[in-house]
Design a protein that fits this description.
Pfam families: AAA_28. It is a single chain. The protein has helices at residues 15-27, 45-55, 78-89, 103-110, 129-134, 148-151, 165-175, 184-192, 198-215, 229-240, 246-249, 277-294, 306-318; strands at 3-8, 30-36, 60-64, 96-99, 114-117, 153-158, 180-181, 222-226, 256-260, 298-301. The protein is α/β, with parallel strands linked by helices. The chain is elongated and about 80 Å long.
């Protein structure tokens, strides 16, 4: 059996790290990846450990959080310290040390292993973690799926029935060349009818949240949401006069909510319930109260046709998400 070893901060993991780790995994029988962090790192170490485990489920991915010197000039015993760390986390003999940095040769010598450099000149993948931290959206193609939710931003359409959410959502998604999460409440009602219970609403809310989490790794910088559990909470109040405690515990709020006004004509599509002027106004007030209760960032969207789309785009630009 050949054992390989590599380490890094992976702050965050990027396509160059993926190349390094996949290459290493293909050349050894067992690969150990050590994720190192310090308490004041800009990205929490446990989160980076989680990302690396998601990216490389067949490797042995372990974390190291001790405060130790990061470069040889920080401590005269830098190399003995790191030799001890590696031998502690990997007591078995190491056959190959993989790295894209120059330290790899010395580390390999310290632990009695061969050194195998992988793309040290960054010719295959010209990217660095520092560059991604400075401008994540500018280097989006180099950010792996599990890491993307950390940098992605969500824009949620919020508001009562017949306000144009389901028409606006795909148009916004197309404008930003990204995906959208459709309104799961509509899917549920089309399948099972509109005689809803509180349990049905919780199922709708949790499924919509799960779909959002599933799509974030695949999105292009932004993800458009056609409602989310905050709108389901408004539905609960309209239908039952109360909201389940689950809605207060939910913390997956979008980065920006677009509250669509009731300035469009009512259209009965077979799944809508509250069509009178009074009920539409009440529904809008409750929807707005849910946003204020959650303390989220939101903006009005008004107008018909192209004006409505431009109203949404202006709100997105004002929020710095365009």
């Amino acid at each position: 059996m050949t054992r390989g070893f590599l380490l890094g901060k992976f702050m965050p993991p990027h396509a160059g790290h993926v190349l390094l780790c996949r290459t290493a995994a293909a050349l050894v029988d067992e690969l150990t990846i050590l994720v190192c962090w310090l308490p004041d790192d800009p990205i929490p170490g446990p989160l980076r450990l989680e990302w690396m485990r998601a990216l490389f489920p067949n490797a042995r991915v372990i974390g190291h959080d001790a405060v130790v010197p990061q470069t040889p000039d920080e401590h005269p015993d830098f190399w003995p310290i790191w030799r001890a760390i590696v031998q502690t986390v990997h007591p078995d003999p190491i056959d190959v040390v993989f790295a894209s940095e120059s330290y790899g040769a010395r580390l390999a010598a310290e632990v009695g292993a061969r050194f195998h450099p992988v793309d040290p000149g960054r010719e295959a993948v010209p990217i660095s973690s520092r560059a991604i931290r400075a401008n994540p959206w500018g280097h989006w193609p180099h950010i792996p799926g599990p890491v993307r939710p950390y940098y992605a931003r969500t824009i949620c359409l919020h508001g009562p029935e017949s306000t144009g959410k389901s028409s606006l959502a795909p148009r916004l998604a197309a404008s930003f060349d990204t995906g959208m999460v459709p309104e799961y409440g509509r899917t549920w009602c089309e399948q099972f009818g509109t005689d809803l219970t509180m349990d049905d609403l919780l199922h709708i809310a949790t499924t919509h949240d799960a779909m959002t989490r599933a799509m974030l790794p695949e999105c292009n910088r932004r993800l458009i949401l056609d409602t989310d559990p905050l709108m389901t909470a408004a539905w609960a109040r309209m239908l039952f006069g109360r909201r389940d405690p689950w809605f207060d515990r939910w913390r997956g709020h979008a980065d920006l909510y677009l509250l669509l006004d009731i300035d469009l004509p009512w259209i009965d599509d077979g799944t809508r319930l509250f069509g009178t002027v009074e009920r539409r106004r009440l529904f809008l007030d409750i929807a707005r109260e849910e946003l204020e209760r959650a303390g989220v960032r939101w903006a009005w969207v008004r107008g018909d046709g192209e004006a409505r789309f431009e109203s949404a785009m202006e709100a997105i630009r004002a929020a710095g998400l365009a």
